[in-house]
Specification:
The protein has about 325 residues and is an alpha/beta fold. The chain is about 40% helix and about 15% strand. The chain has 13 helices and eleven strands.
Length: about 325
């Protein structure tokens, strides 16, 4: 039987996003004859620009890997971090579920020999490039470094001679990995804790207050369990200096049955949600209110976006001018 043909596009995704090969395309290719089209019937959207306003008549499917709540007035369907129950319009899809290349390593974290784990002699690492985050991250780093130096392999606070090429390989030589979210909100669980598992380390996690519903609390240190970061350090020190305790945590599976990540990491986890959208006739798949107040709401935001786009164009040369002026001033100061 021939597959149903669907015309889709991807809009507002992050730089480097591959339209032909991604988490969603690999699912859709199993069931449909997919065409990436400039005149699509369905549009996958994210939050890195606002071009989706140009596709008003399409079925819009929003995905975010950032800590923002989907606007169901703008999108027919959404996938994100938050715990939302909204008929067939929403699927909770944490960002770590998209990390196909790391899933196997993370799931097998607890299956290695004692010698493999004990060969890890380095203390703790983190790989961070974004300097903008909640202050808890720096407070935790500073608290840990009172006990023992912590290695930074990212661009932020780098102390290993420059950014590392492979964060998982880099982290794999350590017993602990810092896994602090940029911000904290219930359900906002990114790849950070997952990277720590994939590298066969014990993540030190801060972020979602529901993290222990997702992952086995015997496999990581949750900073929220303690009154302050000095107490977190005391717990980390206890594990680091006690091989039996360290091995017990390393041999704890990250998400046995009963934990939410157990479901999210299944290969077909998002299939039913997406098939429900694409198996319907296009008109029946639409969920947004496109009349009266719903229509006006979308139009107002579209008009506001046009103003923002003009301001963005104006700001770019001014930003470049200020940057160049700053560089010239810096060189002049050095010469003096």
């Amino acid at each position: 039987m021939s597959k149903k043909k669907i015309k889709i596009n991807y809009i507002d995704f992050w730089p480097g996003f591959k339209k032909e090969d991604n988490f969603f395309s690999r699912i859709l290719d199993k069931y449909y004859d997919v065409e990436i089209s400039d005149n699509p019937d369905y549009v996958f959207c994210s939050c890195f620009s606002r071009k989706h306003f140009k596709y008003a008549d399409c079925v819009k499917i929003f995905y975010t890997g950032e800590n923002i709540i989907p606007d169901f007035n703008l999108y027919d369907y959404s996938m994100g971090f938050h715990y939302i129950d909204f008929e067939d319009r929403y699927l909770r899809l944490p960002h770590y579920a998209l990390y196909d290349q790391c899933i196997k390593a993370a799931k097998e974290k607890h299956t290695h020999s004692d010698d493999y784990y004990l060969a890890k002699k380095k203390f703790c690492n983190y790989v961070i490039s974004n300097p903008y985050a909640a202050p808890e991250r720096d407070l935790m780093i500073d608290a840990l470094e009172k006990y023992m130096p912590v290695d930074s392999g990212g661009r932020y606070r780098n102390n290993v001679g420059g950014p590392v090429a492979d964060k998982i390989e880099f982290a794999s030589h350590y017993r602990f990995s810092m896994a602090f979210e940029n911000s904290a909100m219930s359900g906002y669980t990114t790849e950070k804790i997952f990277d720590g598992f994939a590298a066969c380390t014990i993540p030190i996690y801060w972020g979602s207050d529901r993290i222990k519903e997702e992952f086995n609390p015997e496999s990581f240190v949750s900073a929220r369990d303690f009154e302050n970061f000095d107490q977190v350090v005391a717990r980390v020190k206890e594990i680091y200096e006690n091989d039996d305790l360290y091995l017990k945590m390393m041999k704890a599976p990250i998400a046995p049955e009963g934990f939410q990540a157990h479901e999210c990491l299944k290969e077909d986890y998002a299939d039913a949600f997406l098939r429900n959208i694409f198996d319907q006739d296009i008109d029946k798949a639409k969920r947004r209110n496109m009349v009266y107040v719903g229509r006006d709401y979308q139009k107002k935001l579209k008009d506001a976006n046009k103003v923002i786009e003009v301001l963005d164009v104006v700001k770019k040369p001014m930003h470049q001018f200020n940057k160049t002026k700053s560089q010239i001033a810096s060189k002049f100061r050095k010469k003096k």
